[in-house]
Amino acid sequence: MSLLGAAAGCRSPWSGDAPTGPEAAAGPQEVLVPAEGSPSPSASSPVPSPAPPSASGSASESSVQPVRKSLSEAESRPVYELDPAQRVVALTIDDGPDPKYTPAVLDLLQQHGIRATFFLIGENAVEHPALVREIADRGHHIANHTWTHPDLRHMPESAVRDELERTSDLLHRTTGRLTTWFRAPGGDWSPVSLKVAADLGLRNMGWSVDPRDWSRPGTPAIIDTILKEVRPGAIVLNHDGGGDRSQTVAALKTYLPTLIDSGYLFTAPPN
């Protein structure tokens, strides 16, 4: 059931954002669909300018800590798809930034006028701050994927909080923007990680299409899985970090224009 079906007048978490890609201006507004029960793995608006770089190369740090509004249990429930009544797709890219593959992905997205959501790992982001800023400057959404990519399910709250808060703080310092979305490594949330994410004002995003590109099944297999499984409202999972992602880059070159030609509009949360 969509949020519109669940509660009349309820605003989408992405309310006000517009799909991207060819003819995006005519596209509908998207509505996220939250997961029910326990989670299981399975053209855009103007972009605000980031804070100016400091002498160290990072975005200028304010003496005031970022203000995060904690979320309710309902708001923090993981979402796995957009409104299936709308022909939109959300592309999400995990595990970067990577100095070799992230620029290639960014160039492909720019070529097709697509905005995506990049779920960044803190220990990678701290090594490549210029690349983090480039992702944001190109209009993509920066999201939290923990600091070290651990399995959160059996970690104490203090350790989970450190993983999430440390990453959100780094991304804010680097880009000047608050991080508002989180994805648990492997899609493996726990009651503790959901609580911590809510405390930090982070919504949780899963996925509905997983070509398992991280396992390098071959470019044709990645393309085939995505084109067979994508549906209106799909959230697609790809990776630009964590290993050799040449197959993912090659697959993007084929399936992005194919989906666009099929009438899909790509969307991402507003920055």
From TrEMBL:
Protein name, per record: NodB homology domain-containing protein
Keyword Lipid metabolism recorded: no
GO biological-process terms attached to the record: carbohydrate metabolic process
Gene Ontology MF annotations: hydrolase activity, acting on carbon-nitrogen (but not peptide) bonds; metal ion binding
Alphabetical keyword list: Hydrolase, Metal-binding
PANTHER family listed in its UniProt record: CHITIN DEACETYLASE 1-RELATED (PTHR10587:SF133), GLYCOSYL TRANSFERASE-RELATED (PTHR10587)
Gene Ontology CC: membrane
